[in-house]
Amino acid sequence: MSLLLIFRIYILVIRAMKLCKRRFLLPAFLSIVSALLCVACSVRDGTITLRGASQFDGDHSYTQTLEKFQELVQEYYGKPINFELYENSELGLEKDYFAYMSQGLSVDYAIVSPSHMSTFSKAAPLMDMPFLFRDSEHWKKVLEGDALKPIVEEINEKADVRIVGYAGGGKRHLIANKPIRNMAELKGLNIRVMGAPIQTKIFQAISAAPTVIAYNEIYNAIQTGVIEAAENEATGIQQMKFYEVSPEISLTQHAITIRPFCFSGKTFRRLPEDLQAAILKAGREAGAHGRRIESDLDATLMAQMEDEGKLKTHTFEERGALLRLAKPVKEAYAAEVGASDVLARVNSVK
User: CA 133 → CA 19, 230, 290, distances in Å?
Assistant: First the structure.
């Protein structure tokens, strides 16, 4: 590690300690700092060690995807290699992992939401845009092809982070306190959306009345009548028990998640060519493995909650109208972030 890098970390540590007024936070803070003081990739007794990070425990699909990646790299590399996987947000959150990978510090590989890449690539959040995909088959073919290549190249160049695969697969639907089955029932629906402006614009375009509310306030907001609905995937519905206040699920499938599998560019360039090849191959395959896990879990959880009488699903009868109304908003957003070519590439996938 260079003296300049050590100095920069030292300054960040001092600033953070000044802000850390609660003493009970200090042990956790110091453990994160000690990890940050490590250059990501290290060599011990001639054996390379790579470090991964996950916000979740070992039961989560993202953590299982990272574990699959480690297993495949060992298989394809065929030489001794060590992995250290930090779970349960031990090294911070996804936005932190992306910054660490960009800087070549602490984290070599992680799964990161596209929204956390926007500092380096204005086009990256397009991957999470509602109604980007016609259906599950379209989503699958996009991720198996090169439609997103311009975004991948921009992130590689500007953030020095390589996207080596794609996890994700959760389908987001409307969750409401009344059935929403068609455009007439959707019109004027007061629905909570995420804070990104594109989310508000899309839901306004499809005739709903979107409101930005913090995620942890959704349950109470629906319960007290502040809003009538929200949107989420099966895991979120189960974990937050949204079915208790909004048991009517409208299967709009307005988004299918993409979660890029990232690897530090600075680390990658330091590795031998045969290990680089193993990482690229393992990243693609681990991402596909993760998508299968999440897609299967998503469908299973929804069916399980319905069988248990916790919720009721409804087919949205006019999904074609949703796609048609969303189209001009998607095109305007893509033009705004310089990604019209990417949107065209995605739309052209048959």
Answer: 43, 20, 19
Per-residue confidence band for 194, with pLDDT thresholds at 50, 70 and 90: confident
For 125-264, where are the alpha helices, taking DSSP H only? 136-144, 149-159, 183-186, 197-205, 218-223, 234-240
Q: Which residues are paired to 86 by β-bridges? A: 53
Q: Give CA–CA dist 271/268, Å, rounded.
A: 5
Contact 262, 112 (CB under 8 A): yes
Domains of the chain: 3-124+143-167+261-292 (3.40.190.170), 172-256+299-348 (3.40.190.170)
Higher-confidence position of 284 and 31:
284
Three-state DSSP at 290 gives helix
**pTM (2 decimals)?**
0.82
Q: Compute the CA torsion angle 63, 64, 65, 68 (nearest 10 deg).
A: 130
* Pairwise CA distance, residues 177 & 313, whole Å: 12
